[in-house]
Amino acid sequence: MTTTILTATGTPRPRRVPGGPAGTRPRGPAGTHPREGRPHEGHQREGHHREGHSRTSRPRALPPHTVFAERLLAVLSGERPVHWMLGHTVGEAYEQLVRIAPETPLRSLGPRPVLRRCSVQVDDDRTAVEAFATIATGARVRAMAFRLERGGDQRWRCAAVELDGLGAATRPVPRPA
């Protein structure tokens, strides 16, 4: 939308009104909507908020099992190197990733693999979590299971990983003689 304004010399020139074409940045801090945080005129009284909405609402943090599923997906699809998980693994899990990741079993020739679902079973004392995730790689759906353990510092770390049985299948299997 344009309007005409007069310059200091009195000649008219077009001026863009705020709220210009798509792709322009709105004024204000990044990540805010121009009307966010202001009460709607005539709809609500001062100090009253709609249920579930607050002026300082932040996006909900993802649960740890979903965060780890996304991290493991990034490593097993080749998006991230295995050492990216160094501080986030404990025990055998890093070695399992080192064995599985070079094959990039979740790499897709088409669209990026996507986490479809992540379910969890929590241990009674809430120090361990068994998680199961389904991952879509193009038209194929893969399964991934992993275990998270909470350390003394209250941080979750991955303790075991298995992908469509690949965690167990990559170990050498003794053959009968």
Helix coverage percent = 10-25%
CA gyration radius, whole angstroms:
26 Å
Number of helical elements: 3
Q: How far apart are the termini?
A: 83 Å
Numbering strands along the chain, what is their spatial order in the largest sheet?
A: 3-4-5-6
Indicate the structural class.
Answer: alpha+beta
Mean pLDDT: 77
Helix and strand element order: EEHHEEEEH
Envelope shape: extended
Number of strands: 6
Low-confidence stretches: 38-44, 168-173
Strand content: 25-35%
The main pleated sheet reads as: 4 strands, antiparallel
For this entry, give a set of tags.
alpha+beta, 177 residues, 14% helix, 4-stranded antiparallel sheet
Give a verbal description of the structure.
The structure is a single chain. This protein is α+β, with helices and mostly antiparallel strands and 177 residues long. It contains 3 helices and 6 strands, in the order ββααββββα. Helix content is 14%, strand content 27%. It is extended.
In short:
With 177 residues, this protein is of the alpha+beta class. The protein has helices spanning 64-76, 93-100, 166-169, and strands spanning 2-6, 12-16, 114-122, 128-137, 140-150, 156-163. The strands form two sheets. A four-stranded antiparallel beta sheet has the order 3-4-5-6. A two-stranded antiparallel sheet has the order 1-2.
